Amino acid sequence: MCRRSNCYHCHSLSVAPLCLDLNSGFLPFKGESVQKLLLCELVSVLGIVDLFSKALIIMHILISNDDGYQAPGLQCLASILAEIAEITVVAPSRDRSGASNSLTLQSPIRAHPISEKLISVDGTPTDCVHLALTGLLDSEPDMVVSGINAGANMGDDVLYSGTVAAAMEGRFLGFPAIAVSLACGESAVNYMTAAKFVRDLIVKLNKQHPLPSDTILNINVPDIDSSLLEDTEITRLGHRHKSKPVIKMLDPRGKPVYWVGPPGAEQDAGPGTDFHAINAGKVSITPLHTDLTQHQVLETLSDWIGPNKE
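RE: above sequence
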């Protein structure tokens, strides 16, 4: 037993037996998430004499979303990813769907600790990730995962999505990021399908090809049982038709109010698109980047404008 009086493992670790995987660099734990392990603690707890000087560290994942910290998709994702990582959740205090990349600049932002690893923020998804990565957390995470969103984020949706925006903020601040959404109807059912897919993907990426910090993976998962998933397809963003008109109503005082109408139907949804993959019962993974420059037009536009005149 470790002689250190403040040893986390001797005094507060209450989990199933450790599963040591020297090849992957992971120490998966079932149950509560755990603190990052120091090499000396591993020696004292596991009795390992020679670890070949290989430092084994548990991954730390920051989770956020746009549906709010109490959303079932986020809770399912956090519980599954806790099998492979230390989890910290920093998420909006309420549903902030459609908040896109907005930051709160004109008023202070309040953060409310709900538990040791769960913080509710009175702000947008981007606020949550920005606060977490620029001072709110005591230690930086290894990556950012946003979701699981109740509804698909495909095609033009990514421009409005708070789920994608939370992942994008992680990317802006130098961390690899994943956004995951469940392509469901009025009510989502199979969050577990998406959560387990993301867990397995993260393990695979870290064993073989760690995700670069300049990459965002936008993942959409069909709302079906895992056993019914057809395959995984790497896709590009499709496109929708123009959005439906706004819905006009009258408030109790007879004054007009408006609801934003539903998104347009699929337009560019052929093979290779995220829409096509989901319609075929496949998981869609779309790599995103933040450079919005239309590079193909640069030379043409320069010809239109002409040389600069002195």
